[in-house]
Write a structure and sequence with these properties.
By secondary structure, the protein is mainly beta. It has one helix and ten strands; from the N terminus they run βββαβββββββ.
Amino acid sequence: VQLQASGGGLVQAGGSLRLSCAVSRSTFSINAIAWYRQAPGKLREVVASISRSGATNCADSVKGRFTISRDNTKYTVYLQMNSLKPEDTAVYYCNRWGSNMSDAWGQGTLVTVSS
């Protein structure tokens, strides 16, 4: 797997976390990258995406709270998560934009938000 997420943890509601996604150089240079999450018993969903040029999109559920960014010198994509809510609890994954369940996925990183 050419993308690896890290930075999850346990945080209280209202708190913040920053997730990091280490991307292989080849993948980073030719692909838009997205953050996905999967909560227990739910389908995996797109949280945010960023194109090669830096254009971003966020799901309505996280707009105004989450910010996606990329560091082109470190081949890393970040997800800054502020004002976290218990419903943000999930395993967070990063992958190429448009990935589906048949693609290779890393282990993800667990984010737990306590109320």
